[in-house]
Design goal:
The chain is an alpha/beta fold. It has 11 helices and 11 strands.
């Protein structure tokens, strides 16, 4: 077990998960899907993800943030404008979030989708209160509202961090999209959630935390909570909390995006292994449409970039979860495209939306 006296600043993890009508198999296993960062080309990629996860009969899809670019117009959005139409930056800001609903979320229909907040959801004129208001339907889904009621006084209001439990798994969505996180309020809330999970009669076998930025000292540390002092200190603390939950016998998994590639085993680093050889399993999955990055030199075997896709988690009866990368081809994007999505723009996103 990692002692807090040894580590005074450890990173927080975004716990992501969603509840929904879940297809059961003979061994009581079921699956869910997750990815993040659908700016730039997400209007082409997300419909393909929606098609896949529905065909796979996944329980839900979880988006880890960065829905639209906001600092500049997304190329997918621009390509689907009427001929000759141009947007000012103010017009773009007024329409970008609605475009996310129309060309990304609409592809899922009634399929359960859960949202996490990304740093591009903090770009002015968007505010935290504005985010909560704009995405209230997703932040107050029936599963989340029911969990808040069950949590009672420790639940907190509707907001960008939340959790719910399903089939013995606690899914936790954390908010580390802005430099004021993790706040004392979010840490207090998370501590309460984990304490309830660790109670002898909780029935919780696994904990999955989803967040936008990876906790500190991962293989993706070049673009994560290491970037600001409060992020590093509180992120370290959060990691130790999840490590202790794992040491107590829970299956624990940490998921993030922010970096636009797929990278497994991200906490298998010298920093974390100085405390224990058994690190908390973690993955970066930022392949939902954003401009794809080169892999860091520290990435583990199996990491991939210059592709699009999502992570599927197969949950077994004992709470163990196996994760598999699902990649999407240009043909997948074409088959799922909106009628006004130009083939040339889709091809451009496939071949040139990358470092």
């Amino acid at each position: 077990m990692i002692r807090s006296s040894l580590i005074r600043t450890l990173p927080l993890v975004l716990v992501f998960v969603t509840l929904s009508a879940v297809a059961q198999t003979s061994d009581s296993s079921w699956s869910f899907a997750v990815s993040g960062d659908s700016r730039n080309c997400g209007d082409f990629v997300m419909p393909a993800i929606a098609s896949d996860v529905k065909a796979e009969n996944d329980a839900f899809y979880w988006h880890l943030g960065d829905f639209r670019w906001m600092s500049k117009e997304d190329q997918d959005l621009v390509s689907m404008l009427p001929a000759g139409k141009e947007l000012s930056i103010d017009e773009y800001h007024r329409t970008a979030w609605d475009d996310f609903f129309t060309h990304q979320m609409a592809a899922f229909g009634s399929f359960p989708v859960f949202l996490g907040r990304g740093n591009h959801e903090t770009v002015p004129p968007m505010t935290r209160d504005g985010y909560i208001e704009k995405f209230a339907t997703y932040l107050d889904r029936p599963e989340i509202a029911a969990q808040r009621k069950a949590d009672g006084a420790g639940a907190g209001p509707v907001g960008p961090w939340y959790h719910w439990t399903h089939e013995g798994v606690d899914f936790i969505t954390l908010d580390n999209a802005s430099k004021d996180e993790f706040s004392d309020a979010q840490l207090k809330w998370l501590r309460g959630v984990l304490d309830r999970d660790l109670a002898p009669d909780s029935g919780i076998r696994a904990i999955v935390a989803g967040m936008h930025e990876a906790l500190p000292h991962s293989t993706g540390a070049e673009h994560a909570m290491d970037d600001w002092d409060l992020g590093e200190r509180t992120g370290d603390k959060v990691y130790t909390w999840f490590y202790d939950a794992q040491a107590a016998g829970k299956h624990v998994y940490l998921l993030a995006s922010h970096s636009h590639y797929y990278s497994p085993n991200i906490y298998d680093t010298v920093y974390w292994k100085q405390y224990s050889n058994r690190v908390v399993p973690g993955t970066i999955i930022g392949l939902a449409g954003a401009h794809r990055y080169e892999l860091p030199k520290t990435a583990q075997k199996g990491a991939k970039t210059h592709t699009y896709g999502y992570l599927q988690g197969q949950v077994h009866a004992d709470g163990e979860i196996e994760f598999k990368l699902h990649e999407l081809s240009e043909d997948d994007l074409v088959r799922s495209r909106w009628p006004n999505a130009p083939l040339a723009a889709i091809h451009e996103c496939v071949v040139n939306n990358a470092d």
